[in-house]
# Entry
Amino acid sequence: MKLFVDDRRDMPKGFDFGVQSYEECIRVYRFMDFDFVSLDYHLGDGPTGLDILKWMKENGKHPSHINIHSDHIEGKPLMRRYAEENFPEAAVTLNPV
# Structure
């Protein structure tokens, strides 16, 4: 299953779930597992896509593919580094969707 997380962009075709905030993401992810997760860094005024990655690590969620579709100049490289270091089995990509 595929999860898309972004507070501004609409969910692209081919995704099973689209959420707009950290809270929504955690709510869905607690009960489901995803093979592919596409994350934006900036999710409004609260927690970020990096916080989602940290939650995933802490809660044993290990998708086979993590895509970072953010254009946030500081957040994008932070997310990439964290994903590569903490999810060594996952493909990590930086692609717009």
In short: The chain has a mean pLDDT of 96. Residues 13 and 34 are 16 Å apart (CA to CA).
